[in-house]
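Cont'd.
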Amino acid sequence: MENKVKRKLWFGLPDDIIRLIMNRLYYVDQIRFRAVCKSWREANVDGVKYTDKLPWMMAFNSSCCLLYDPNNKRKYTVFNDWSSRREKFIGVKTLDGKNGWMLFCREESISTTNSLFFYSPFIDSIIELPKLWFDICTCSATFSTTPLSPDCVVFVLRADTKMRYICICKPGDERWTKLRIPGSSSKSKLCFDDAEYVDGLLYCISSFCPTEMCTFNVARREWKTYAYPPNTGGWRCSDYLTEFDGNLFLSHYLADAGRWRVLRFDPSRMDWFKVENLDDKLLLLNRRVSICCPVDKGSEFSNTILAGRFSDRYIYIKESEYESRRPSHPKPKLSQIYDWNVGKLICFWIQPPLPSC
Amino acid sequence: MAIMYALKSSDNEIFEVEQKVIEQSETIKKMIEDGAATGEIPLQVSSKTLAKVLEWCKQRQHKTVENENDDNKGKRKKERDEDDDIKEWENKFSDELKADKDVLFDLLLASNYLDLPALLSFLCQLVADMVAGKMPEEIRRMFNIENDFTPEEEKAITAEHGWAFQP
């Protein structure tokens, strides 16, 4: 009898305390914690965050998918030579990643259509989207939030010789809605370099011809055009948009000046402001998936920009140096930074989803 | 002369405590401010747990009083020594709770009920450190928790995040 009562003890931990404990756990420990008993699993975990600082990595090819947890320095196998998954991942291109989900595109071999789908390595789950009828390689694409949320909207930005278009859909929709992007000039239209969704607005940038930033109000379907930050450092290459904590950041490398510049967009003043200090954040910049994350003060990764492709060596710049140093050195390999040699796998940063998602 | 209050545990034991010590509890502080704390203050906390709560509060109080009396001379060294002392005391406190998880559980609830944020935070960190890196079965064994999932439910849970349950 006594034993029975005791067994009930920890089972009855109030939700408030469960949340406080979970807030002090890494993502992987939260999953195991919630698998202990029913009441811990059913606890309301709204607003709970994990203690992981650095984003995870997802590495895959058509026959395997691995996750790397840099906080515990552990590698996990999501699937390995699982034949049913193979076809899905042959020739996929990564479009974007957010909240633990990647947006992939797969070219169909028999037709000219493209399949878009979400994949979460954390729950090994696929969510298919309607097919698109054009080549997506030159397009920019992003999405608003986790595809499990009813608020999820997917955006694909495209340009042909005459016009620019946006294609919109929600998971579960049967087809895409195609809208023309107004404000076309006689100039040739190139597609946007990057797009990022922040708080109801889709921000799209084109750094060349025309050089501008457009915003799309998703609810009102309204477009606005804003000035692009003035070009102070000569030839500018690689413009990246990154969202953090409801703020939009633009980062680019000023080739002539040999340094990086980071700017923040202030929607109330409708202008860009230079970010002088990264405040112990780490910026991971990539054409498809860019992540900004706060890290421990004074740690190896604080005030650091890592940019480039995953197969390449990284441009690695400490903020104290980012005004002066040309990025010729040092360029540690990804395997050095993350202590993981991914070989020939395709690799992307990915942040685990929050427990309430 | 310090103002004393009498706290009565759920099993009717009386604890005489200085106001400064017990005021760390927001719940009791409010009772005192509202004038509701006349005579004995009855608490829904067992004497065993209340003794632990007061042990924590006295240690914290001790620390703040000493800091107030410090002059700047030799303060840094003293602070360092004190930090070591506190660490040592906290380690001992943690070890006792790890050894008696029923008290740890009661103390968690009591710190929540008495609104002692520092203690609650300390205890939650202690539990988090205890479960970190452990599989559900190990956690169940540690806290004596029954696995109340049906085999089907358990299978579905571990399948959802299969990678996280790899040994």
